[in-house]
Amino acid sequence: MWKTILRRILIMIPELVVLSILVFLLAKAMPGDPFTGSINPRADPAQIHHLMKINGLYDPWYQQYWNWVVHLFRGDLGMSYEYQEPVVDLIKQRGTNTLWLAVFTMILTYVIALPLGIYAGRREGKWQDTLIRVYTYVTMSIPFFVVLVIGIWIFGYGLNIFPTSGSVSSSVSGLGATWLSRLGHIILPGLLGALFGTVNIVQYLRSEVIDAKHSDYVRTARSKGVPIKDIYKHHIFRNSLLPIAAFAGYSITGLLGGSIFTEMVFSYPGMGLLFLNAINYRDYTVITALVLLYGLLNLLGTLLSDIILSVVDPRVRVE
Hints:
- One of its GO terms (cellular component) is plasma membrane.
- It comes from Lentilactobacillus curieae.
- It holds the Pfam family BPD_transp_1.
- With 319 residues, the chain is mainly α.
- It has a single domain, classed as MetI-like (MetI-like fold, Orthogonal Bundle).
- The chain is built from 14 helices and no strands.
- The longest helix is centred in the middle third of the chain and has 39 residues.
- It is globular.
């Protein structure tokens, strides 16, 4: 298994090289430049020309790419044109916020989805199952940004329970107060994201539980007098988790990339909002760094899903 993991990691290297070239070329092909809007729409063209020249934006693309790669191996992803900060520092700051929101959302998602999916499958055809299915259908039919806006309107402005923007209140001081403020800022977006993210998991798990409880090995276990609780615990539940485990790695790395909708609506300073602003401002250095990071997270998600799947079911091994 460890040899396979090492081989998969080595295969990622040429994939990342190809991805970096494509991302670099696509970023350079975007219309506009990173200086006109950030300085002044009526700025002197000579000033824009000077800034483009000293930043090497008139060099051939391959020369720009080579310089970028050389700095990349030195741990330097360049300077953000819009924020005037090193891209590495920007990613660290925003990545920390996204990490806390992603972990909180992921925990809530599985805490809600696993019991609901198992319960719905166990109560197949009964009113409890119908109620859970109605919940999944309604949630799936509503666009995610609408759920976010309604959540802010009810819990942020109507009931005034949770903050509606930022990651930490500017008025707090001290480590304990800062952590409490950070937690308060991620509860509402994390809860809304978890409620929306449970839909597929609940539906998959319900279907797997229903299929498993009608399978031959479950009938054999029942005929031998095995208690129903043990059947669900040792047979149905574990086998039903296989499709969920197969997508777990993608879910984790996807959340780490940041949710553009969530961070935009809540003005949450994370990776998703940083990426959206970078596109709006033509901030090429930030765009290339983030897309390359997203590509790496996607490749790691594939590997992580295989590892999780092999842990959940000993019969499945990465060969």
